[in-house]
Design brief:
This protein is α/β, with parallel strands linked by helices. Helices cover 26% and strands 26% of the residues. A 10-stranded mixed sheet has the order 11-12-10-9-8-13-6-14-17-16, sandwiched between helices. It has a 5-stranded mixed sheet with strand order 2-1-3-4-5, with helices on both faces. Helix 3 packs parallel to helix 4 (112-119).
Length: 349
């Protein structure tokens, strides 16, 4: 249980980098000497020091390192990227034992870090809390194992299962979420690389799709507007965030906006492939209903987060997507909303 206890701490630390390190993985590291944590750290920002570097730097008595165990949530890197190889630093620090949660699926690492450590005579323990590590880095693993972004579907619905009332273009959207849920959604936006909404949602609601309710980065905004009908003065084109517009007419970049040309039919996988090549690892799909149902019918989705109001009913309107054939992982009561977290049973690895 000792290994599990310290690895759980490393996983907890790694979570602090969510929304800040992509396209790198979330990594935490703990250094233990005689059952005492003497150093710890996590990867805090893309391009900055890795978790192992921060943990080793935090150790005040460096002379204890050769007699300590290093716990890390992902295989130490063995290549030069934005920073030098962490495996080399571990070897240089004369640490004799390393416990690892997951192997790195990145071909630049993929066992090479383990090999370096073994060649230096370091004792290696693998797969401690393996499943928890895979879940933590599900965006990272999906990118390398499925060659597409990790897809999170999100919507709010009334108690009787509607996402909006029937309305014309001059009417405002039905307000379902309370302030607590709105802030939660903005937190989710900050945690993912991108946010995707349908063209009709843009035209009806002119959303900003930012994290203005909280302190956090704005995700890249995505929509598909095949014939470029969205007026240029709409919020989606403002400089608050980058925007990708899939269309059938042009490839172009202007200010923070990027138009990507696609084929006219059966283009979901094509769009996801282009986003993968653009190094987008995760997408929060916020609607509308047609777009959400398109992902559900395709089977290409990983999570769904459904916020249902405890009391609000409207009797008729636009029906929410069906949650049939979804695995209910967790449900939490947040203010006036019950938030249900689902996973796709066909995408679990």
């Amino acid at each position: 249980m000792e290994n599990e206890t310290y690895m759980a701490r490393a996983l907890h630390l790694a979570q602090s980098g969510l929304g800040l390190v992509s396209p790198n993985p979330l990594v935490g590291c703990v250094i233990v000497h005689q059952n005492n944590i003497i150093g710890e750290g996590y990867h805090q920002k893309y391009g900055a020091a890795h978790a192992e570097v921060n943990a080793i730097r935090s150790v005040k008595e460096k002379n204890l390192l050769p007699y300590s165990t290093l716990y890390v949530t992902l295989e130490p890197c063995a290549h030069y990227g934005k920073t030098p190889p962490c495996a080399d630093l571990i070897v240089k620090s004369e640490i004799k034992k390393v416990v690892i949660c997951n192997l790195d699926p990145n071909p630049l690492v993929a066992g090479k870090g383990i090999q370096k450590l073994k060649e230096a005579g370091i004792d290696i323990t693998l797969d401690v809390l393996h499943a928890q590590g895979k879940w933590l880095n599900r965006r990272f693993f999906t990118s390398f194992e499925k060659n597409r972004p990790y897809i999170i579907l999100k919507w709010a619905e009334t108690k009787d299962g509607f996402v909006d009332s029937i309305r014309d273009s001059n009417s405002t959207a039905l307000k379902i979420s309370d302030a607590i849920n709105s802030n939660l959604v903005h937190t989710w936006r900050a945690q993912e690389d991108a946010i995707w909404v349908g063209k009709n949602t843009v035209l009806k609601d002119n959303p900003s799709l930012t994290t203005r309710n909280i302190v956090g980065k704005n995700p890249i905004r995505i929509t598909c507007d095949k014939k470029n009908n969205i007026p240029p003065e709409f919020h989606i084109f403002n400089p608050e965030a980058k925007t990708i517009i899939f269309n059938i007419e042009k490839n172009e970049e202007k200010d923070a906006n990027k138009w990507m040309r696609i084929s006219d039919e059966n283009c979901l996988e094509e769009m996801l492939d282009k986003l993968h090549q653009y190094k987008i690892q995760s997408i929060l799909v916020e609607g509308g209903t047609w777009l959400l149902n398109t992902f559900i019918k395709s089977g290409i989705w990983d999570e769904a987060r459904v916020s249902q109001h405890k009391d609000l009913t409207i009797g008729t309107g636009i029906k929410a997507p069906k949650t049939l054939n979804m695995n209910l992982k967790e449900k939490v009561l947040e203010g006036e909303m019950e938030v249900k977290f689902y996973t796709n049973p066909h995408q679990l690895t």
